[in-house]
């Protein structure tokens, strides 16, 4: 249902205004994802600073567990900040999450090492990682909701897909910053203390983003509800009190978000871990491979978001998950064969030929393509699924629970499975199983939301 007041009609908002909203939202969200994923990009090096060095595998898995703790915290952030977003507004809530994220990331740069303060070091690291997770639990729902409530109904998939690129762009920026710092400082200095610089840079990035975001206006849909006195008094209780809304949250989680979460994180983060830690390809080559795949693959998020405006969200999302479930094993096995055929072991790491590097990059582009299909349309889908006055809360809880518990923990679970089974490929069955399960549930229960009006 649309309103008769053109002031609040999302279908009549000028394109220039819409792009201002997208840019302001995206810049901050890229920085938050950079903050969140710089930890994962440096997990192998961080493990040597904050955990005992006598067992490198255990130290690395402990670091991945701390990385996963941030994901586990995300649904709680969704509960806290989702309620704030539905009560005080989208804009002010993701200003707060930006400050929390940036502050905690900046602080990681200054934690003393395990050799200096013992177990207090990993304890502080874990605490700051949890704060990061809480902040991200509020950020994504706010940015996606904010942009979607401005976007016209017929092009919501296209415009919200720009927000969907921010996670991958944040990951990409983290890799580029790491490679530049490593190149300038040298490998030894970077591993000793230089890894702290990418975390410290977060302070500057957050200040820039804050000044961009503080001049944004509130979402017109939220402003209309506030003006009419129709805001929810208790969004969390209202979201769970309604049987139909509870059902929608469960369907969204198990029929879309769980699969999307494992496909996104496997196609980018676990691919990075698999190439570097399991196949033992050198650190620089690994990151160049991942970075090149992200450069090629990131525009595909917008391509598939736009395509969902024409053929539907459901087909594209479930299609990406199905392709991942079918092709993950042969693609990861192919990567292993390439390293064996095109790699030379030097000082404990495989150095690839140019042909081998290109082949691995091609495979990673395919993995990012599956992720783009699953992730590109999902913001539009979730916004269209829930009513405005409890949208932030209803969207954030299932999104961050599924992405945090199932998706974000995928690198940790897959690496752990590989370690306990002594198999390079056992870990890949975790995302395959969850992606396949999501496709089955989604085919049966997931509604199509393409083109729905969200003015309610």
TrEMBL record:
The cellular location(s) given in this protein's UniProt record come to: Cell membrane
The reply on keyword Transmembrane helix is yes
> Sorted alphabetically, which keywords does the UniProt record give?
Cell membrane, Membrane, Transmembrane, Transmembrane helix, Transport
In this protein, which residues make up the domain named Major facilitator superfamily (MFS) profile?
Answer: 21-450
Q: Which InterPro entries match?
A: MFS_dom (IPR020846), MFS_sugar_transport-like (IPR005828), MFS_trans_sf (IPR036259), Sugar_transporter_CS (IPR005829)
Please provide, in alphabetical order, the Gene Ontology terms of the cellular component aspect for this entry.
plasma membrane
Q: Which domain of life is it from?
A: Bacteria
Could you tell me which CDD domains the record lists for this protein? MFS_ShiA_like
Example of a GO MF term: transmembrane transporter activity
Q: How does it sit in the membrane?
A: Multi-pass membrane protein
**Signal sequence extent:** none
**Where does the sequence pass through the membrane?**
21-46, 58-81, 93-111, 117-138, 159-180, 192-212, 248-266, 286-304, 316-335, 360-385, 397-419, 425-446
Q: Does the keyword Nuclease apply?
A: no
Instruction: Just give the chief location class.
Output: membrane
What's the name of the protein? Alpha-ketoglutarate permease
